[in-house]
Amino acid sequence: MVLISFISMGGIGAALAGFLAYADKKLKVEEDPMVEAICGILPNTNCGGCGFPGCRMLAEALLKGEAPPNSCVAGGSDTAKKLAAVLGMDHTDHKRTLAVVLCKGGNAEAERRASYRGEVSCTAANLTGGDKSCTYGCLGYGECVEACKFDAMAMDDNGLPVVFHDKCVGCGACARACPRDIIEMHPEDHKLFVYCRSRDKGAHAKKVCKVSCIACGLCVKDCSVSDGIVLKDNLAVVDYALAPQTDESIKRCPTKCIFFGIEERVTKASFFASQPKRTG
Amino acid sequence: MGHKTFDRGVHPSYYKELTASKRVERAPLPKTVTIPLQQHLGAVCEPIVKKGDLVIEGQKIGDVKAFVSAPVHASINGKVKDIELSNHPGGIRVLSVVIEGDGTAKEWSGAEIDLGSIAPEALREAVREAGIVGMGGAGFPTSVKLAPPKGKAIEAVILNGCECEPFLTADHRIMAEEPGKVVWGLKALMRATGASKGFIGIEENKPDAIDALKKAVGATGIEIIVLEAKYPQGAEKMLIQAALGRKVPVGKLPLDVGVVVNNVGTAVAIYEALNYGKPLIERIVTVSGNGVREPKNLKVRVGTSFEEVLGLCGGITGEGEKEVLNGGPMMGIAQSTLSVPVIKGTSGITVIASGKIKPEKYDPCIKCASCVSACPMGLMPYRLGDYGLKQMLANFKDFDGQSCIECGCCSYVCPAKRPLLQWIRMGKFFIRREAQRAAAKANNNKK
Ligand code: SF4
Ligand code: SF4
Ligand code: SF4
Ligand code: SF4
């Protein structure tokens, strides 16, 4: 009995395999070789940075002329050049963008007013206002790090996400993942950042986080170009069209939340070297 | 048994004995109140007072010209100390008016007016002006419910006296202590909507309230429907199904089956607004849970801090960490600070001392379908939870995730302790965000 069923199972298997082989030949959908060629150039990480759900969709859009050859943010200039060549288009330069985490209120600086026990995710914690006293700052559950497909982020020992300058391709997945919109995408030549998102009045902001923007307006006065920095909703905002990106006169910020982020930029290697509790 | 009810649902331990027989006490006048300009679903109010202004109890301090909204009023006499962003029990920060009291209070009273003498439109306007919102928790502006769109007739008004949420007894006490006001409020609601029938739905576990209401109803034709004590009996759609046997289709409102549901507390607020001219500035809050020294039903002014209210109940007790909820344990929102104000929708403050807090660890789904058998909306929570967590939003919508009423039955019954409702709330958040981003993008493209 056992033998018979073994044989018949084997028989069914063989018959189905034969059918599949036949179906594969007969029912094969003809692929556009151009789409295949373009997909071969794209990184195929489906990061979404181009605004399409996946690399194949961008390939199709490129072919139809609905997207410029420098659309792939993850691929950078190299990919843009190759795509322009394949498509017979002019090469438009690729401007590199980087993710910037605009909160420096880690465990050492920002007060935690409660302990959170739910799903370990920033979105989940944010549903009830979060466990940190500041309701604008980084929650520290690393949803952005999880969203990054390029190994370009990690949480530091202080509970804040860090972007690796050498790895980030600027796809923006982290920025889209953050429920508090703390991460912004900036061209590489932006260097001056206000590392705070709190729209609370200064007194309250300072009470709950040592490195919050207290909207005192000193940076606004210090900035060598008028309106280069403005105060909006209790927060200093840099106007990148106006403010010089290395303006040495901006130095009186009492909480040191505005500074030239370029000094801050870390590489993956330098990050792990600086974090005693972590290993790469 | 044998009482009417809805399909599925759960039977949690009620713990109502802690406060069910305690008469409502009026809390002493708070020294300061922080009154959020948004205590309702809909548009946020704009402040209509300035820092330094003197205000009197009942004075309107915030309003907005939107249909779905409700004005807010000063709950004490005093001076506006500040208008600033402040904590809100919903977990957000909301522009709020801080009033420093002068220690005096107003007495609200008046003779019962003749309902027949007021036009339905005038009634609706008075309800709006008094800032009345659903007092069961969600805070939907009552005046909006009373103005059905053209072509939709309202046949019946049901007053919701189920109070199926564990620990809470505020509505129970209202019905037992002020049944006359409840019935009058229901008649006012019937007049405002043109409904010919009125019902009051109560769970069978409140016999004293049932007796009191039966006496108050007398021969008015208003029917009292005694329902099985089951959670979430007090959810609008469940109540309508249990009481009238009508099902509100997915994505539709009670209006679509000719019904309007209001909380019993809302009915009393309407009574006081029409007869005393008193806006919604004070409400009954059940303060309970094993983390409260002396559980009570307190009549509290809107804007009083949780800290102060808990202080009036002997403070927080017990070892270890506590979970403080705005509302009860099934639907209540966990608070991360005690400096949040009581708002119009705060039916209770529940403090659970640790040991009873749900563990943070959960196991894989064992496909037992307990959550499916519990969901009163007939959804598939185990799937919705996954779709929410993993941001599979198309699937989430296909499986009607948006019609989840956030009752928490699914999380409650799950043997694997999966936080299903939290995941579903995440799914709803992602969908909201997706819509916001799409709108922002469309806006940018236009420019
Ligand atoms: S850090 Fe952010 S923008 Fe950079 S690659 Fe990772 S997800 Fe993309
Ligand atoms: S997703 Fe946002 S809140 Fe969460 S860790 Fe990243 S930056 Fe912080
Ligand atoms: S899915 Fe929603 S409606 Fe269904 S049991 Fe869970 S919380 Fe309640
Ligand atoms: S109750 Fe929990 S374990 Fe059972 S099917 Fe639902 S999610 Fe899975």
Structural features, described:
The complex is a heterodimer of chains A (280) and B (447). Chain A has 280 residues and is of the alpha+beta class. Chain A has two domains: 33-87, 3-methyladenine DNA Glycosylase II, Chain A, domain 3; 97-273, 2-Layer Sandwich (Alpha-Beta Plaits), CATH 3.30.70. Chain A has helices spanning 2-26, 33-41, 55-63, 76-87, 122-126, 143-147, 173-177, 202-208, 218-222, 268-274; strands spanning 97-101, 153-155, 161-163, 183-187, 192-194, 229-232, 235-238, 258-260. Chain A has a two-stranded antiparallel ribbon. Chain A has a two-stranded antiparallel ribbon with strand order 2-3. Chain A has a two-stranded antiparallel sheet with strand order 5-8. Chain A is globular, with a radius of gyration of 25 Å. Chain B has 447 residues and is of the alpha/beta class. Among the domains of chain B are: 16-20 and 114-276, NADH-ubiquinone oxidoreductase 51kDa subunit (Rossmann fold, 3-Layer(aba) Sandwich); 370-446. Chain B has 13 helices and 17 strands. Chain B has helices at residues 120-129, 142-145, 170-177, 179-193, 207-217, 236-244, 264-276, 306-311, 370-374, 381-389, 393-398, 409-413, 420-446, and strands at 25-26, 32-36, 46-47, 54-55, 60-63, 72-73, 78-87, 93-101, 156-161, 197-203, 223-227, 259-263, 282-288, 296-301, 322-326, 333-334, 348-353. In chain B, the strands form four sheets. A six-stranded mixed beta sheet of chain B has the order 1-14-13-17-15-16. In chain B, strand 5 (60-63) and strand 6 (72-73) form a beta hairpin. The termini of chain B are far apart. Chain A binds chain B through residues 113-121, 123-124, 126-131, 133, 135, 179, 199-201, 204, and chain B through 84-85, 87, 90-93, 321, 333-337, 357-360, 389, 419, 422-423, 425-426, 429-430, 433. The complex binds iron/sulfur cluster (4 copies).
